[in-house]
Amino acid sequence: AEVARRLAAAADEDELVLHYQPLLALASGRVHGAEALLRWDSSTGMVPPDEFIPVAEEAGLVHELGRWALRRACADLVALPGLTVSVNVSARQLHHDSFARSVEQALSSSGIAPERLVIELTESAVVEDPAAAQAVLGRLRRLGVGIALDDFGTGYSSLSYLLHLPVDTLKVDRSFVADIVTDRRTQLLVHGITTLAHDLGMSVTVEGVETEEQLEAIRQTGCDAVQGYLIGRPVPLAALSS
Ligand code: G
Ligand code: G
Ligand code: MN
Ligand code: NA
Predict the structure, then answer these.
(1) Which ligand is closest in space to the CA of residue 120?
(2) How far does residue 184's CA lie from ligand 1's centre (Å)?
(3) Contact between residue 201 and residue 150 where contact means Cβ atoms under 8 Å apart
(4) Which of 7, 35, 37 to mutate to test the pocket of ligand 1 (most atoms within 8 A of CB)?
(5) Could you report the per-residue pLDDT of 176-234, keeping only the tens digit for each?
(6) What is the ipTM for the molecules in this complex?
(7) What is the 3-state secondary structure (H, E, C) of 33-46?
(8) Residue 226's beta-bridge partner residues?
(9) Tens digits of residue pLDDT in 94-117
(10) Rounded to two decimals, what is the model's pTM?
(11) Ligand 2, CB cutoff 6 Å, lining residues
(12) Domain range list for the chain
C-alpha cells in the first residue's frame, strides 16, 4: 500500500522515465525504431517495471501510468525523426475502456503519424478475452497504429490468434536466442516462424541478441529485425537520439 501511494505520486513528481532500446533492421543495417521501457526513478533508486507494474495493476493505477507512457513516447518521437516507437501494454490496460482513447489522445496531442506508434502486447493479454482484444486492436489498426506480439513462441501460444488478430510484427522471445548458435533445431524453428509470418504478411523481430555469433545465426533465419544488448541497451532518450 505504501508502494502504491508513492507510485500514485510518481507521475506527478516526474519520477517516471522511459528508456529506449534500439531496433535494428537487418536489410538496411539501420536502426528503424525503439522500444520504450518504463522505469521508476524513485527516491529509493531505480525500480524496474517487473516490480511496480503488478503493484500498479492491483492499485488500479496502471491505466494512468499507461496514459503517461503513451503520451511521453509520442512526444519523444519528435526527437527521433524517421523512427517508430513501441510501447508495452499489459492485459489489464488493453481491456480497460479507456485504452483506445488514450492512444488516440496521445497521437493527437503529439501530432505524430499513427504509423510511427507500435503497441506491443503479449499473448496472455489476448487469451483472457480474444473477442474484446480483437475489437480494440481492430480500432487501433484502422487508425494506422502498428501491433506487435511480444514474447512470441512462449507461454500458451495459439496460432489461431495470428489468423484473427491484426498483428503486424512477431517478436520472437529471447529464450530462443540463447541456444540458437549451438542448437540447429532452434535456428530451424525461428526460420519456420519467420516463413510463416512472412506468408501471413507479418514481419519478425528477434529479441535478446547479445553476441555476434547469435546475430549471424539469426541473419540466416531470414528475420527482419533484431533487438538486444549487442545492438544497444535501453538508454534515456538523449543517449538514443545523439
Ligand atoms: O525493461 P525491462 O527488461 O526491465 O522490462 C521488464 C518487463 O516490463 C518487460 O516484459 C516489459 O514488456 C515490461 N514493461 C516495460 N515497460 C512497460 C510499460 O510501459 N508498460 C507495461 N505494461 N509493461 C512494461
Ligand atoms: O518482455 P519484453 O520483451 O518487453 O522485455 C524487454 C526487456 O528485455 C527489457 O527490459 C530489456 O531490459 C530486456 N532485454 C533487452 N535486450 C536484452 C538482451 O539482449 N538480453 C537480455 N537478457 N535482456 C534483454
Ligand atoms: Mn516488449
Ligand atoms: Na519480449
Answers:
(1) 3
(2) 30
(3) no
(4) 37
(5) 999 999 999 999 999 999 999 999 999 999 999 999 999 999 999 999 999 999 999 99
(6) 0.97
(7) EEEEEEEEEECCEE
(8) 24, 206
(9) 999 999 999 999 999 999 999 999
(10) 0.97
(11) 21, 37, 88, 150-151, 174, 207-210, 228-229, 234
(12) 2-241
